[in-house]
TrEMBL record:
This is MFS family permease. The keyword Membrane applies. One of its GO terms (molecular function) is transmembrane transporter activity. It is a multi-pass membrane protein. InterPro entries: MFS (IPR011701), MFS_dom (IPR020846), MFS_trans_sf (IPR036259). Residues 226-409 form the Major facilitator superfamily (MFS) profile domain. Its main location: membrane. Keywords: Membrane, Transmembrane, Transmembrane helix. It comes from Kribbella sandramycini.
């Protein structure tokens, strides 16, 4: 007997269901980007004013390492969950509560050790929510609707970044900023938890064997080459993106010389968000109608590469605004179409969340290596111009390599 939860979906999903999934994803990214864009940078400067770049890179890097491990593990556990509430609902609610606890730890942190504990909790449990919510798209959405629905889900990180940055900026201090992000995260998942109608897994998963469970995280690029290329290109896209965004607060403060870097980050995030949402809506729908994915992702990589060059050679406030517009245009196309492409190269239905968790390593691991690459460049090897040029080159190369995916047009 085949479980309904594992069947290829054929019924189109409604706008209310999509909105609930999008809102839950907005909560995840608000909980991540509010701290990354503003709060952790300010907190690092407060606890180590002479060594802020190192502390910020240490905390975000270790947190990202936790994310690398957490994403596929929570995905695999979600795939095996036999709760009567479904496979995804329990981890959505539990993850949001756990991440909120981590944000509250950060709110009271006065030193590096507690910052590390709090941020690792946020990354750990935030990935439980992300793994579950990402898998809902191939679980419930038919292929011919995935460009639009997957696009909305993928671009949730953009309003999430905007909401998180706004909460961090206007809440009235570092501690209140963390509390605001925690409250918003918990509230954001409730519509999906209460109305998501997650389908329970009717067929029991195979007996748990630790060796088989661990080996299951390896998806052979020889056996599944398109999955391998999809992973590599997403990894490179995120390396380029992480290099560009990691020190944005310090770039605006130290290189551009804006008087209020936190407000400047909020303004740029708002401009970037509008551009992402407009292009994502247009190109996600266009991709569904045309049945083509690769050409859009290739073009988005080249456009994002141009944004890196702009930020490198024009370190002024008008240059930063222009870079945000160009990056938003390119990233909107990338987010809306690349997620649909990835759902079409997953090896099998039983392991959707686990395999998407493996894909999510390509989102998280760049955050581990970006500080290792970026900090020496900023300090010793050319500063921000070299950093943003490198970001642009890596992103453009990622776009070109998407052409290696063969099974998707």
């Amino acid at each position: 007997m085949t479980s309904e939860a594992l069947a290829e979906p054929t019924d189109r999903v409604r706008a209310g269901w999509t909105a609930a999934v999008v809102l839950a994803n907005v909560g995840v990214f608000a909980a991540w980007f509010g701290p990354i864009q503003v709060l952790l940078a300010k907190q690092s400067e407060a606890v180590a004013p002479g060594n802020k770049e190192f502390v910020f890179g240490l905390v975000t890097g270790i947190g990202a390492a936790v994310s690398v491990v957490a994403a596929p593990i929570f995905g695999a556990v979600s795939d095996r969950t036999t709760s009567r509430f479904g496979r995804r609902v329990p981890w959505t609610l539990g993850g949001a509560l756990g991440a909120a606890a981590g944000l509250l730890v950060l709110a009271g942190a006065q030193g590096v050790a507690l910052m590390l504990v709090g941020w690792c909790l946020v990354q750990l449990f935030g990935n439980a929510v992300l793994a579950a919510q990402t898998a809902t798209v191939p679980d419930r959405v038919p292929v011919d609707q995935r460009g639009v629905v997957g696009g909305w889900v993928a671009v949730a990180q953009v309003p999430g970044a905007l909401v998180g940055t706004a909460l961090a900026t206007v809440a009235g201090g570092i501690g209140f900023g963390y509390v605001a992000c925690a409250v918003f995260f918990v509230l954001s998942v409730l519509p999906y938890v209460l109305r998501g109608r997650d389908t329970p897994l009717a067929v029991a998963p195979p007996p748990f064997v630790l060796r088989g469970f661990v080996r299951g995280f390896w998806v052979s690029p020889r056996r599944y080459p398109d999955f391998g290329w999809a992973w590599l290109t997403r990894f490179l896209f995120n390396v380029g993106n992480s290099l560009g965004l990691l020190y944005l607060f310090y770039y605006l403060q130290d290189e551009v010389g804006v008087p209020d870097a936190a407000t400047a980050v909020l303004i740029l995030t708002a401009i970037y968000s509008v551009c992402v949402l407009i292009t994502a809506i247009i190109f996600g729908s266009w991709s569904d109608r045309s049945g083509r994915r690769k050409i859009f992702v290739i073009g988005s990589g080249l456009v994002m590469g141009v944004a890196g060059v702009i930020l490198a050679v024009w370190p002024t406030w008008p240059g930063a605004i222009t870079g945000a517009v160009v990056l938003g245009i390119g990233f909107g196309v990338y987010l809306s179409v690349d997620f649909a492409l990835i759902t079409e190269v997953l090896p099998n239905a039983r392991d959707r969340a686990k395999d998407l968790g493996v894909i999510n390593i390509a989102n998280s691991f760049p955050q581990v290596i970006a500080p290792v690459i970026a900090a020496p460049i900023v300090k010793h090897f050319g500063g921000y111009p070299v950093l943003y040029l490198l970001s642009g080159v890596v992103t453009a190369v990622a776009g070109v390599l998407v052409s290696k995916v063969r099974s998707v047009r």
